[in-house]
């Protein structure tokens, strides 16, 4: 538990004891109610408190959390979405998150995974019965208590009866636990939580998700286009995970079907949560009778290589988001340029007598040589063209070309589109006037936009298509509101 000079002493009627952690939305504090009960209080950051759209979203989170309060979640104690800094107080759950438990003690036993599966299926059944889709079920949103797993954090939950408020193409959630329909923006519903449940179970059983790790764009691409890796699981649990990971939501079982497939719960605890007792924070109000305070674990950073200091798109604070990078390659053009150059020289007629005695053969050889020369020149142009590196991150769009680099913030980009034909696709950007000449590019125009990155022009068709798909996924993740994903 940490403290900070600017931490509040009181939020609503709750006395702050110390800070539990900080995420993208704000800080979470351990506090005591007027009657001495422990609660977890989430307080929104100052810069977000002034955003009417965010206030509306936070109010929806409170409504969603209140709808599902019960034995399977952290009950809402109090909230004030209209305060200067909106806040939400929920029941304090003494126990580690699944993320922390796996990182501390390793994967769960087979019986532990089955108990987790039954507990989460029961929790999702109650959540969906309340008319809510969680949409961000992941290990750090699951707390392991003595009475089974509890699901927390309904920050991006959506009521079943609501129309989606997400912008077209915008991906909201955590890479690795998003369903294909969340990534593509089609038909998000209760089945989306079942896909996330299976990814959580794979993580609990093996310590890694079914789609490995990496930058968010690559993970999103694998979820939509590749098969998951499912470790060996006992009995019906393997079948449950396999069916829940189906790309078609209609093929996934319901929580009730999962409980029926798994049968009676295994009479064993998920794990023995470590008792965490920390000394009182230095910025604590007069102590309350009851001794040392237990504390929730601090947020766990995402897998190495995905993020570096700052909040991640999924709301976890960890190292700053590096983002997704794409770079042009010279390997294939060099090989083809060398081969076609050698063939051009090999077919070039050199014997003057051949030109006199066999003019037709000499002419044909000359034409073949010129044909290879044409292809050699085309590939040498690709070889000599400066390498271009494109990076997409929460900060904006960065282009590096020939040792020159510039970043355009997303506020300076009005539209992004993958254009051109299948053999020579480009990333096209429409920029605000003040940024039109900032990028180190050739400023080739395309229907009013600028061609900022040649997508795998020197690669094979398969590699080119893969990079197009990965780039589209990255655009949806980092710039979904301005990504025109029409084909």
UniProtKB/TrEMBL annotation:
InterPro entries in the record, alphabetically? Kinase-like_dom_sf, Prot_kinase_dom, Protein_kinase_ATP_BS, Ser/Thr_kinase_AS
Metal-binding as UniProt keyword: no
* Record's keyword annotation contains Cell membrane: no
Keywords, A to Z, come to:
ATP-binding, Kinase, Membrane, Nucleotide-binding, Serine/threonine-protein kinase, Transferase, Transmembrane, Transmembrane helix
Molecular function in Gene Ontology: ATP binding; protein serine/threonine kinase activity
Query: Protein kinase domain: which residues?
Result: 14-275
Bilayer-crossing regions: 356-377
Q: Which domain of life is it from?
A: Bacteria
Pfam family name, one: Pkinase
- The UniProt annotation places ATP binding at 42
Task: Give the matching PANTHER family.
Answer: MITOGEN-ACTIVATED PROTEIN KINASE KINASE KINASE 20-RELATED, SERINE_THREONINE-PROTEIN KINASE YBDM-RELATED
Any idea what this protein is called? Serine/threonine protein kinase
Q: Which organism is it from?
A: Kribbella pratensis
């Amino acid at each position: 538990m940490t403290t900070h000079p600017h931490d509040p002493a009181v939020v609503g009627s709750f006395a702050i004891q110390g800070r539990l952690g900080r995420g993208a939305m704000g800080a979470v504090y351990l506090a005591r109610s007027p009657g001495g009960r422990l609660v977890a209080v989430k307080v929104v950051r100052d810069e977000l408190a002034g955003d009417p759209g965010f206030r509306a979203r936070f109010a929806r989170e409170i409504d969603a959390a209140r709808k599902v309060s019960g034995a399977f979640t952290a009950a809402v104690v109090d909230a004030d979405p209209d305060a200067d800094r909106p806040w939400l107080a929920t029941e304090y759950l003494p126990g580690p998150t699944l993320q922390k438990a796996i990182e501390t003690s390793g994967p769960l036993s087979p019986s532990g995974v089955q108990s987790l599966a039954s507990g989460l299926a029961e929790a999702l059944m109650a959540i969906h019965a309340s008319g809510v889709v969680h949409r961000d079920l992941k290990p750090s949103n699951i707390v392991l208590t003595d009475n089974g797993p509890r699901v927390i954090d309904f920050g991006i939950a959506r009521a079943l009866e609501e129309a989606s408020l997400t912008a077209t193409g915008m991906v909201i959630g955590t890479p690795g636990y998003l369903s294909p329909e969340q990534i593509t923006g089609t038909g998000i519903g209760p089945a989306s939580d079942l896909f996330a449940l299976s990814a959580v179970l794979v993580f609990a059983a093996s310590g890694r998700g079914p789609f490995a790790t990496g930058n968010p764009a690559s993970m999103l691409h694998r979820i939509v286009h590749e098969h998951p890796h499912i470790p060996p699981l006992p009995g019906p649990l393997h079948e449950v995970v396999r069916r829940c990971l189906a790309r078609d939501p209609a093929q996934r079982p319901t929580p009730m079907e999962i409980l029926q497939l798994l049968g009676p719960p295994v009479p064993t605890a998920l794990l023995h949560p470590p008792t965490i007792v920390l000394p009182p924070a230095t910025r604590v109000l007069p102590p309350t009778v009851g001794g040392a305070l237990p504390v929730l674990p601090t947020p766990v950073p995402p897998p190495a290589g995905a993020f570096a200091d700052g909040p991640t798109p999924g709301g976890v604070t960890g190292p700053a988001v590096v983002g997704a990078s794409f770079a042009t390659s010279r390997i294939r053009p060099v090989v083809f340029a060398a081969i076609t150059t050698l063939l051009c020289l090999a077919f070039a007629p050199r014997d003057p007598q051949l030109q006199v005695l066999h003019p037709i053969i000499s002419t044909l050889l000359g034409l073949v040589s010129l044909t290879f020369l044409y292809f050699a020149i085309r590939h040498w142009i690709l070889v000599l063209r400066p390498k271009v590196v494109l990076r997409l991150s929460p900060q904006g769009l960065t282009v590096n070309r020939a040792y020159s680099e510039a970043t355009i913030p997303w506020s300076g980009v009005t539209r992004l589109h993958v254009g051109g034909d299948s053999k020579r696709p480009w990333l096209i950007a429409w920029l605000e006037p003040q940024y039109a000449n900032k990028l180190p590019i050739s400023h080739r125009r395309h229907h009013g936009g600028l061609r900022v990155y040649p997508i795998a022009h020197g690669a094979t068709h398969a590699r080119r298509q893969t990079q197009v798909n990965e780039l589209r996924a990255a655009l949806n993740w980092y710039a979904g509101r301005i990504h025109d994903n029409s084909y």
